[in-house]
Amino acid sequence: MELGLIAIGAALAIGLAALATGWSQSKIGAAMAGALAEKPELVGNAIIMIAIPETMVVLGFVISFLIIGLKPGE
Amino acid sequence: MLLTMSKVEIVGVKTLFFQVLETLQDLGTLHLEDITKKRGPRYADLIPMEMDPALEEERNLLQNLAMRNNAILSELAPPKERISSAVIDEKYGSFQGRTLADISAMVEEEESATRELISYKNELEVEMSRLSKYEPIIKKVYPLASKVTTTEQYTSVALLIEERYKQVLDYIEQELERITSGQCDVFSARVDENTHAAILVFHKRYSEQVHNFLAAENVNQVRLPTELADKPYDEALQEIETRYKEIPPKLKKVKEDLEDISNKWYATLVALKGYLADRVESLNAIPKFGQSGHVFVITGWMPSDKVEETRKLLEEKYEGKVEITEEMPTHAEMEEAPSAMHNPAAVKPFEFIYLLIKPPKYGHLDPTFLVAIFFPLLFGFMLGDMGYALVIFGAVWLMKRIMKKRESKSVFMTLFANVLFISGISSFIFGLLYFEFFGDLLFRLFGWKDAAGHAEVQWIWGYTSNGKPWGWPLERIAQANENLFGLLLVIVICIGALHMGAALTIGLIDGIRHHDRKHAFEKAGYLMFILGLVFVGLGMWAFKDAKSVLMPLWAVMAVVGIGFAGYGGGFGGGLEAALTFGNLLSYARLYGIGLASVILAEVANELGAEFGGGFMIILGVIVAGALHTLNIALGILSPSIQSLRLNLVESFTKFYQEADVVYKPFKRSGGE
């Protein structure tokens, strides 16, 4: 595969995953901020909820790293 | 682990009720139950205890005293010398024999000693804060005002005008001349870079017109305190200046007097605060108890190992007039049993997880030991770096020192520091495995890297049975060695399988212990599915060419697992079993976050190295240090949250049941 395509593939893998994570965290963050204003005892749940979408970007990063590891021509 | 609890009933002669209540509060082991909510023949003849008017009055008096005592305490600063808890305990004990009238008289005495001083101090502080607002104005206008002398018929107004609008002054002067028919004077001077001050002196009869004119023109007049508003400016400012200087020594004297009182009374007041709160709490508990004609009945739960001790104490103190008996709880009562944890010192810090969720339900296994094993393991796997571990140890030492200095008793901070220390040890061990010290700093310093940036050294190395290489140090950025990369992914999946497997085993044991066949089948199904998949995966990775007879067996086990889960948990259970595979794969985050951390560390070193030698090396170290600091901060935050998430979401959801009732003994709490 061409080096350029490998790079684009890797960038898409991390980039799209990061966008998705950011979008999800913005929604969850706003909702949790509202919930915390009424029930501060939910702080533990809030941290976990906000951390959940991070899986996408972390896995995107792993995939991106795997793609970069491909050798041109393979 | 969870403490074994016993359901107890304490019956005694009614005349001893208040003494027994005090004894139980001192013992601090009984979790009270509300007897009025009990149903059944055993409780049918019992009459709930009620607060009679005398007790109501006593409670009101206690609450009133507590309020007044707290008000005094809030105004006094704690003495510089630390008060030991032994002194407070001694003072607390001294209240136990005293009557409420006695205590009331004492509070009154304290109030009269402090009330006037506190109110005088507050007045001075208010005055000081009010006058301090005029300080910058005084500084600007006073030098000018001191040049102005007014007579009784004349009054004055001060203005502050920005430098760029200073030409307005000419206009104001002209208008003032016109309004007062020349009976006026204007003094102005530049008081700082941006401000001109002006004092307008004019006859009192024109006061209204002048003020109207200034208001209409929106000129910034200097306002003085109301009581000085009628005075000419020079006098008013002088008075403010004098008062402003007089207050600090007066305030100092009042504070010294209050400090003396605090030294004398503070310990007593703190002890009294606790005593009054405990008395109110014990009166509040009364409606939870039952009574018949001559006896009172108290029911509750206490740790089983405390029952005998309590029995002996009651026997000795009340000579058989009060008895404690252990009851056999019904199934419904067992559901309401409070849960209390008791873990060894090494596991205890991980009870921090119960700051986020409720403790485990009584009768189930306490998973704190699981968190104690896996939290540091997952943390270390992600942030494995010897250098970073040393920084963590330093941070923990600093935290503990600060806490000691501030005498902080924050449960969260204590647990956090201990968890961080244990996680730091794990980070150091994994750092040794990866041989990372601030990323690849050691490799760079000793030239152990080739031109492409890959480690050239491997002190221990070998081959798997499939001919795949492995070795130590385990290079995390292992693009050059795909097999090593694969090995790390296999390791994280195995860690995930162990983590989830341990959780499912707890769930399975819980199901068997509670004779819940479906629950046990569901958990066993998940477990079989995960194990089957992992063994198939491992077989394919390590023995790709081997025609192992075991491989089909593992595959069958995984499929049968889905069947078991379906039997135990219905359609949802079967589906959940299949989704478990996704949960397992999500442990790849361990590798992802670790990779992000080590890449950032290497970027820090690379950037530092770019600055070259000589004096530039200092700049390089600063840049690398800043990036490493950022990486450590992210490195602590992200692995902690991810580790927590893996524990709570991937592990706990497989078996965990939150407690409905948490053990809260009736004890001297001092209102905390």
Report on this model:
The complex is a heterodimer of chains A (about 70) and B (about 675). In chain A, helix 1 runs antiparallel to helix 2. Chain A is rod-shaped and about 55 Å long. Chain A has one domain: F1FO ATP Synthase (Up-down Bundle). Chain A is built from three helices and no strands. Chain A starts with a helix and ends in a 6-residue tail after the last helix. Helix content of chain A is about 80%, strand content about 0%. Chain A is mainly α and about 70 residues long. Chain B is of the alpha+beta class and about 675 residues long. Among the domains of chain B are: about 90 residues, Alpha-Beta Plaits (2-Layer Sandwich), CATH 3.30.70.2750; about 270 residues, no CATH class. In chain B, about 60% of the residues lie in helices and about 10% in strands. Chain B has 20 helices and eleven strands. In chain B, the strands form three sheets. In chain B, strands 1, 2, 3, 7, 8 and 9 form a six-stranded antiparallel sheet that branches. Chain B has a three-stranded antiparallel sheet with strand order 4-6-5, with helices on both faces. Chain B is flat. The two termini of chain B are about 25 Å apart. The relative contact order of chain B is 0.11. The model of chain B has no long low-confidence stretch (mean pLDDT about 80). Chains A and B meet through helix 2 and helix 3 of A and helix 19 and helix 20 of B.
